[in-house]
């Protein structure tokens, strides 16, 4: 499907009476390969079914700090982070089924035990979480929604950030990254003007790319296209 065809469908969705809430994603259907199909069966214990309630209850050690990643794509960087941080719990939320399948496949190979994933709109999942319950929310290379009429779909916005702020613990962090310079400027403008958040790089600055954040598929694509990568880490201060 061409980009124009996808965008035409998005506009159709916007016009549907019953589709009142503007979402930040576009569901794509693509076939699963054999190992992905097998992985969905084999690693069912890693896959949560929506509605999920308090995400912490799905771990053997619910008291451990929780990281939630929104839109993990194919999931490799999330698996690497979970593997590198066994003392934390990780939940990945994605609406792309091949991504969920690939993620649990790789987590199975890496014998990662502290990761759960689910197919759902992250906004709905966050709404079900108790306030002050998440230590880290990460959003890497979110869809930039480049056309002006789609800006309302951008995840980082004054409409959606209050939910993120409510669900983070005090001292918890929101970490985003993008390779799309206009979205980077937009993110900074939104996030620097959220009174409950503090820019850990200082107002007006992006955060130096942390070496502990593994490269993602969309990041690699951005770099190959010559794009600059901007990370932003904001701490909840009130
Ligand atoms: C541009 S891709 C980036 C994927 C990955 N983070 C990477 O860097 O390679 C954005 C992903 O976010 C997912 N997404 C967007 N909004 C979402 C939401 N509200 N809940 C769950 N997933 C979402 C999309 O399905 C898509 O796979």
TrEMBL record:
Its EC number is 2.1.1.33. One of its GO terms (molecular function) is tRNA (guanine(46)-N7)-methyltransferase activity. It comes from the Bacteria. PROSITE patterns: SAM_MT_TRMB. InterPro entries: SAM-dependent_MTases_sf, tRNA_(Gua-N-7)_MeTrfase_Trmb, tRNA_methyltr_TrmB_bact. Keywords: Methyltransferase, S-adenosyl-L-methionine, Transferase, tRNA processing. Substrate binds at residues 147, 179, 216-219. S-adenosyl-L-methionine binds at residues 69, 94, 121, 143. It catalyses: guanosine(46) in tRNA + S-adenosyl-L-methionine = N(7)-methylguanosine(46) in tRNA + S-adenosyl-L-homocysteine. Pathway: tRNA modification; N(7)-methylguanine-tRNA biosynthesis. GO terms for cellular component: tRNA methyltransferase complex. Belongs to the class I-like SAM-binding methyltransferase superfamily. TrmB family. Catalyzes the formation of N(7)-methylguanine at position 46 (m7G46) in tRNA. PANTHER family: 3-DEOXY-D-MANNO-OCTULOSONIC-ACID TRANSFERASE/TRNA GUANINE-N 7 - -METHYLTRANSFERASE, PENTACOTRIPEPTIDE-REPEAT REGION OF PRORP DOMAIN-CONTAINING PROTEIN. This is tRNA (guanine-N(7)-)-methyltransferase. It comes from Acinetobacter wuhouensis.
